[in-house]
Every structure is written in structure tokens, then in C-alpha cells.
# Entry
Amino acid sequence: FDLPSPPELRSRHLGRGVWIDHFPLSKTFDVRLPCHSGPPGGQLSARTDRRTVRLEGHVAFGAGDHPTTRGAAEFLERHLQPGMRMLDYGSGSGVLAICAALSGADFVLGLDIDEAAVASARRSAALNLKQDALKVVCFSEVPAEVSEAQEVVASLVESAGGLGFDVIVANILCEPLLGLAPVFAAAARPGARLCLTGLRSDSGEVAQVMQ
# Structure
């Protein structure tokens, strides 16, 4: 950091924080990792009155402790209705896709460029969803190249009889979002809701590109 002098380091005991027991993701969901006790995945916690999402953790982004993940979860609570189709682009741990499935989405697709993240999301989904609910959730690897990803998404929509997605969430970085507009356009059905996280309030360029 090229500091003029070594920084002064201080420690402070924070006590027993909520994060020791769980990560409060939204009004509806808590996230629990293997180190957390509490109810199994998909079940209501009597202590918090929120449903538990169990993640295997330590593999992919999205443990529920990051503000962008919490913001995206709150977006889903406001806009995702039972029977809707939801796309989680850059699904990471799969936490948002799992929340969508638990909220009654008709079909949920999680796409990520990281093969390990996709495998982890599938394992976490199995921790939270019963067999019938697992059938509505699909995690798949997608090419990093935008044109190739667009072809994959367009093919998926076509194979579903032209049914696009009612809600699209992309909890990733700003720079990739700028290039992914064609992918989101291929995925969205008319009137779809789009949630992009990790942006500054003055990120006007992103708004112009998406329009």
C-alpha cells in the first residue's frame, strides 16, 4: 500500500455475533454453513422464524454474508411469485437459485462459468430441496465468451418452447455485466424483471447498456 509508516494494529472483542449461528440473508431466509447448528435445509427455524438454506460452503461465492447477495435475495422476495421462471446468472454457491425454488418458482436455472461452483451448487440444492422440488432446479456450466453464452441461453429458451425467464438475477461484478446484455436479452421474456448487483449508484453506463 506504500504507507509512510507501519499501521497501528488494534484488536477488539466483538462478542457473540449472529454470524456464529447463521447468516441472516433476508426476511424469509437464513443461510447456514456446515459450522452452523440448527435445522436442516429447507426447514423453518423456530429461533429466527426464517427458513434455513444449507450450503456446503468454501467453494463458491454467495454464503449470504455479502451485501450484494442479501440485496438480490430481497429483490427476489419482492418480485418472484410462485409459478415464475427464474435465471440466476453467475449462480456461484446456488444460494439465490435455492431461495427461488423454496419460494415456489416453476423453474430455476443457475448458470456459472466455474465447473466447481456448479457442482457445489448442485450438492447444496440437495441439502435443501425435496426430490420433487429438485426437479425444477438446474445448475449448468456456461461459456465465459459472451457470444457462446448467448447461444447457450437462446437454445435453452427455444427448447422450453420459447418460454423466457420472468426474473433474472446476476450477482456478479460490474465489468462482466456490461458485456452480458445480449445474454440477458436472449433469456428474458417480455416484462421480465432484471436484478444486477455490485453496481455503484452512479453506474449510468450499465443502465444505458441494459436499456
Summary: The radius of gyration is 18 Å. The beta strands are 23-24, 29-32, 51-54, 85-89, 107-112, 137-141, 165-170, 188-196. The mean pLDDT is 87. The CA atoms of residues 80 and 93 lie 20 Å apart.
